[in-house]
Amino acid sequence: MRDQIRFVALGDSFTEGVGDIDLRLPNNCRGWADRVAEELARHDETVRYANLAIRGRRLQRIIDEQIEPALAMNPTMVSFYAGGNDLLMARLNMAKLITDYEDAVRRIRASGATVLLFTGYNVPLSPLLEPLKLRTAIYNRHIRRIAAEYGTLLVDYWCFEKFQDPRMWAPDRLHMSTPGHSYMAKKVLEVLGAPHSLTSPTFAAPRPRTLTENLADDAAWLRRDVGPWLKRRVLGVSSGDHLGARWPEMMPVVLPERLGTSRAKPQLSSRFS
Questions:
Q1: Which of 19, 28, 52, 82 has the fewest Cβ atoms nearer than 10 Å?
Q2: Cα-atom radius of gyration of the chain, to the nearest Å?
Q3: What is the dihedral of CA 118, 86, 174, 48, to 10 degrees?
Q4: CA-to-CA distance for 273 and 251, rounded, in angstroms?
């Protein structure tokens, strides 16, 4: 008899699904992890899934809040993406970040679960933030090393040329759009060697934009996304402080075609609520 797949997704907004809007679902988003679970469940209805990721979480809170509950569910597969929010901080102890990350991977791997790691992508936010590219490159080098040393699976996000297209990104320029999340799910399933029905996004040639349009778009981005983000940093709060995990308990996968068009969301009791 085939072993049951018990998939738990851990992390921040990347794994929560921010940017892939779906008003029918908890936190109004879907994301690549949901899409992976859905494809797995289409081929095996015994698949179970939980997603503990919450936007804005830095590595230490992910370790403190998510790993123990995840391991208590006896998962057979755990995805772990963490550290992206740390890389955005003005001051960063990279050595400690990598040590803590490696300790977390060691702990998850010791459970016997298959572990899925991700490199980071150099999101083209603004020329002013180009120094982040070096941090991301250092981070990625360590993630690749950790994946090799602990025998985990690796989704080498850094290498995906599709993400050079701005339409793969949400308007905030930091999170993947719906096509981006769908493509990420496809790449994850390929790494897992799992059958799926997902296809790569195809886009028409982009319309050339004028300098005025680019400047207006940058101004809107600064006002709408960067300003509130900086304010939260000054106040020491996060966009996820008042949110709970989307799927906090191991459960059968909710297929989107069974949700209908209602905005009513599944109700779950949770220690994270």
A1: 28
A2: 18
A3: 40
A4: 17
Q: Which residues contact 219 (CB under 8 A, 6 or more apart)?
A: none
Token code pair at residue 80: 């772990």
H helices within the chain, ranges in order?
A: 13-16, 31-43, 59-62, 68-72, 84-87, 94-109, 132-150, 178-192, 211-221, 227-235
pLDDT reported for residue 268? 38
Least confident of 100-104, 187-191, 245-249, 269-273: 269-273
Q: Provide the sign of the torsion angle of the four alpha carbons 85, 29, 266, 191, taken in this order.
A: negative
Q: Residue 258 CB: number of other CB atoms within 10 A?
A: 7
Q: Which residues are within 8 A (CB) of 71 and not within 5 positions of it... i.e. 6 or more apart?
A: 107, 108, 111, 113
DSSP state letter for 246:
S
Q: How far apart are CA 247 and CA 251, in angstroms?
A: 8
- Res 113: pLDDT: 97
Residue matched to tokens 């391991």: 71
DSSP label at 173? S
Q: What is the pLDDT of residue 273?
A: 26
Average predicted confidence (pLDDT) for the chain: 88
- Dihedral angle of Cα 15, 18, 19, 24, to the nearest 10 degrees: 110
